[in-house]
Structure formats: C-alpha cells, structure tokens
Specification:
Elements: H1 2-9, H2 21-30, E1 36-38, E2 41-42, E3 45-46, H3 48-55, E4 61-65, E5 81-83, H4 88-99
Parallel strand pairs: 1-4, 4-5
Antiparallel strand pairs: 2-3
Length: 103
C-alpha cells in the first residue's frame, strides 16, 4: 500500500496491483503496462522466472525487495533494484531509469 501511495504521489497511475505471479501474468496480458515493479517474493512464489519473461518483451521493470541486489540473479542485475523500505527519491530515479531509452 505504501508503494502504491508513493507511485500516485509521483503521478503514476496504478494499472494493476497483484499478489501472485499468476495475477502478474494476467495483468501484463490484459492491461496496458508502461512498467512493472516486482517484489522478488510474492507470498510463497518467486517472480524471477516472470521477470525473465518480461525481459524478453517490451515491458520495462525494476525490482523492489527487502533482499537488495543479493536477491536478484546475475542475469537480471541490469535492472534497477530498490531495497525496502523505499525512499520516494529512489523510486523516482528507478522509474526514470527504466523508462529512459537506452543509449
């Protein structure tokens, strides 16, 4: 909830907020998504395979996790990793990074 409030304060519109990988998969199939913020763990599930799938599609994403970079596999380390608790300024930087075109 706090993350959603921060996103709204930054001017973002929440397209979907889900608590399972299946919910995330459904959301990216059925909703216009500009970017995704993924927790590494959703209940008893990991989002790593889902993130690998997103990496093959044009949906930019970042991780929000209490594990920090240590919780993200090496092949996904090119994505921003926000460590909980999040600071609004760090969230803004991560959003700008994932939405900026690559050089």
């Amino acid at each position: 909830m706090m993350l959603e409030e921060m996103l709204e304060e930054l001017g973002c519109e929440i397209a979907a907020s889900v608590a399972t990988v299946a919910g995330a998969e459904h959301a990216v199939r059925t909703t216009d998504v500009d970017l995704a913020l993924l927790d590494v763990n959703l209940s008893a599930e990991t989002t790593i395979d889902f993130a690998r799938g997103l990496a093959r599609h044009p949906i930019p994403f970042a991780f929000c996790t209490g594990y920090g970079s240590a919780g993200v596999p090496e092949d996904l380390q090119d994505r921003p990793v926000l460590t909980k608790p999040l600071a609004p300024s760090e969230l803004r930087k991560a959003i700008e990074r994932v939405l900026s075109p690559s050089d």
